[in-house]
Amino acid sequence: MRSRIKRNLRMVRVLINLRLQNLMMFRLGFFGPFFVDSCVFLVQLCVFEVIYSNVNRIGTWGKGQMILYIGTFSMINAINMIIYFFGINSIPDKIKNGDMDLYLTKPGSPLLRLTFERVNPGSVPLLFLSGVIIAYGIKEGGIKITPILVLGYVFWVAIMTVLYYLVEVLIRSFTFFILTSGNTIILEEAGLTLCMQLPGIVFYGVYKVIFYVILPYGIMATIPVQFLTGELTFAGAVWGILIAAGFTLLTAFVWKQGIRHYNSASS
Fold it and tell me: What are the φ/ψ torsions at residue 253 (nearest 5 degrees)?
């Protein structure tokens, strides 16, 4: 087990090094995303300011909590964009055009290669800008920061980032079984767009089932903010852990079944 972990860590390090070397061969491809992603983030902030400038509360949350929510979702999305989004997003194309053959014949986990082979350092500025927004939300909300709060918040952001990753892999794994996953990806984008603007606390009834269970984007930034503000209940914390564990098992099962179901392009 230990040797397998070491082997996987070496593979991740090699994949990242190769990706960075490839990006540095084309300087614009390396530094360009810094500028583009920073501009996109600033545009998002302007949109947020326009929408919420005349709104005092969203559900039970005030402006400080909403700023924290926007910053937290942006932080999770930034980690996603830096580490695994571009690799995972290419899964449907690799399945359809037969490139998945190359990953199945190479040593090591195909999913591990896909996850880390296209890291994107161009989104690093989003991490710092998200941190600024989070700090502003803490100040606006009058939250007194303690080491326990910081560690707990980091823990929940990490759990929700993994959940984000699992949902992305699961949705794109449907391409193993159907000709196209386009409709499910459109559904994913619509859910993300909505949940980036509205916290999970505003969802009730069928919408809560959709965004807390089926597409759990509603809890991804909500739970970390609730922990930071002292609003997270024991039941809410247990639910967050159960959803993350459930999607871990479901995604692993669907991926393994998909690999078995996959028809090689050469067959």
Answer: -65, -50
Count CB neighbours of 207 within 10 A: 14
SS3 61: strand
Instruction: Report residue 115 as tokens.
Output: 């996850």
pTM of structure: 0.84
Are 225 and 218 in contact by the 8 Å Cβ rule? The answer is no
Residues 6+ apart with CB under 8 A from 45: 133
| Cβ-Cβ contacts under 8 Å for 224 (sequence gap 6 or more) | 72, 153, 156, 157, 160
- Here the tokens at position 197 are 């603007």
The DSSP output letter for 144 is -
The pLDDT tens digits of the residues spanning 102-141 come to: 888 877 788 888 888 888 877 777 888 889 889 988 998 8
Q: Where are the alpha helices (DSSP H) in 117-233?
A: 124-141, 147-173, 182-197, 206-209, 217-220, 222-228
Kindly compute the dihedral angle of the four CA atoms of residues 110, 192, 64, 152, in this order, to the nearest 10 degrees: -30
Q: Per DSSP, what are the bridge partners of residue 61?
A: 58
In the DSSP assignment, the letter for residue 213 is: I
- Residues, the chain, total? 267
Q: Give residue for tokens 């916290």.
A: 199
Contacts 24+ apart (CB under 8 A), 207-216: 212/239, 212/243, 213/243, 215/167, 215/187, 215/188, 215/191, 216/163, 216/167, 216/243, 216/247
